[in-house]
Specification:
about 475 residues; mainly alpha; 18 helices; disordered C terminus; single chain
């Protein structure tokens, strides 16, 4: 049956034969895995683990990460099946467009543009905070006008002194510049930082293991089992990132073979590192005494290893840069795919003639992230994130179930196990986590969605490449 309008779907059989638009396939398995790890391991291990242990779960923060990891794995298996089936840029946007229809694809793509860009801004603001702390430690004081977003002045600083968070702005523009140097060069930069980050975490685990006091684990569930589950809802946002990495499918040398492995490897490696780090942190310091802002640095300082604490602080800044890279990469590839499909103006899908990267979209979204990071407090920027990624997980998990029954004949490079049970777990857990989000998050989401509907019905629906296709190019 042929579908038209908002129900039209991109035919999976023809997606692979489309013009790639100029992206160059340069990424191997371990480069893809490094990009995934770069998106997963960031503030979650260097600060979020300590905050959740101190306030919500105690030593059971370990269980929180395991619960979140299991839930994330349910979605990861679904992403892996699609990555082996549809090796195209766009990730959840492309998968939703191909299986559930154009409006669903638009809805997810439009939302991920905001979510990924906002994540870049939030992380840049966070790194800026670390940077300012290090400068203070070295007795260097930046001019007030460049030290933060308006309204974020600390006690002792006159209101109105802060004009822009200049360091956060420069970070966003730096990552955009790196991405525009070509995927081969950008991936080398990312891979180097990921190796540095892994080495730092292993150093923390190896040295910290000698300072563990088993008594700190004696009250393992001080907030009860419910505290561990509540903690899982918080740390869940530290165990995705492979979704943004999967947007680079068109830049993988063997996407059908490598992308599913990279998704699962990146999540698996990250979970092992999270578990080991949580064991060390809660073993070294009683959960009541964990510093919520700089958990590991303060933990090592408490046992007399101040120099190592300083190394960890610097390493954390460099390591968290990989999160900026992964999510700006994801945002640009989603925007590029939407533009190539005609849902955004064609100008955005222009690529550099020699580097073969979507230069225009990269600078536009990098600039948008810079504006958000420079002018909004971290709390306001953070409220723009979270809900869209959870809804993307829901869409991908549902699409796996639908496509498995609609087209069981399609060749799949990887098959999600126990369909429909595993994808259903991903759906249920994602919807459950959405209920934890603040009402203001829903309001901002509704406003962004309403703007998206205006754009879709005012422009995208008419300019879509499927608006007037040959009959064989639109399927039911």
């Amino acid at each position: 049956m042929t579908q038209t309008g908002v129900f039209r779907r991109k035919p999976i059989d023809l997606i692979e034969s489309e013009d790639g638009g100029g992206l160059r396939r340069t990424l191997g398995l371990w480069q893809l895995t490094a990009i995934g790890i770069g998106g997963i391991i960031g503030a979650g291990i260097f600060s979020l683990a300590g905050a959740v242990a101190n306030e919500t779960a105690g030593p059971a923060v370990l269980i929180s990460f395991l619960i979140a990891g299991i839930a994330s794995a349910a979605a990861a298996f679904s992403y892996a099946e699609f990555a082996g089936l549809i090796p195209r840029a766009g990730s959840a946007y492309t998968y939703g467009y191909a299986v559930l229809g154009e409006l669903v694809g638009w809805f997810i793509g439009w939302d991920l543009l905001l979510e990924y860009t906002a994540i870049v801004s939030v992380v840049a603001i966070g790194i800026s905070g670390y940077f300012n702390s290090l400068l203070s430690f070295m007795h260097v004081q930046l001019p007030a006008w460049m030290s933060g977003a308006p309204g974020t002045e600390p006690a002792g600083v006159a209101p109105g002194s802060y004009k822009v968070n200049l360091f956060a702005v420069l970070l966003c523009l730096l990552i955009a510049f790196v991405l525009n140097q070509g995927m081969r060069s950008a991936a080398r930069f990312e891979t180097f930082l990921v190796y540095l980050k892994i080495a730092l975490v292993l150093l923390v685990v190896a040295v910290g293991a000698f300072h563990i006091k088993a008594g700190n684990w004696s009250n393992f569930f001080p907030f009860g089992i419910s505290g561990a589950f509540t903690g899982a809802a918080t740390v869940f946002f530290a165990v995705f990132g492979y979704d943004a990495m999967s947007t680079a499918a068109e830049e993988s040398t063997e996407s059908r073979k490598h992308m599913p492995k990279a998704i699962l490897y990146s999540l698996g490696i990250s979970m092992v590192l999270y578990v080991l780090a949580c064991l060390v942190l809660t073993g070294m310091v009683n959960y009541r005494d964990i510093d919520k802002e700089s958990a590991f640095s303060s933990a090592f300082a408490s046992v007399g290893l101040n120099a190592l604490g300083a190394v960890i602080a610097v390493g954390a800044i460099l390591g968290i840069l990989t999160v900026l890279f992964t999510f700006l990469l994801g945002a640009t590839r989603v925007g590029y795919s939407m533009s190539r499909d005609g849902l955004l103006p064609k100008w955005f899908s222009g690529t550099h003639p020699t580097r073969r990267v979507p230069t225009r979209m990269t600078w536009v979204l990098g600039g948008a992230a810079a504006v958000i990071a420079g002018l909004l407090p971290i709390g306001a920027a953070a409220e723009l994130t979270n809900i869209g990624i959870l809804l993307a997980f829901v869409v991908v998990c549902v699409a796996v179930i639908v496509l498995r029954y609609r087209r069981p004949d399609l060749p799949r490079g990887f098959r999600c196990p126990a369909v429909p049970v595993v994808p259903a777990i991903g759906v249920v857990f994602s919807l459950w986590l959405i209920t934890f989000l603040h009402p203001e998050t829903w309001l901002r989401f509704a406003i962004w969605f309403a703007i998206g509907l205006v754009v879709y019905f005012g422009y995208s629906r008419r300019h879509s490449r499927l608006a007037s296709p040959p009959d064989e190019n639109v399927t039911g």
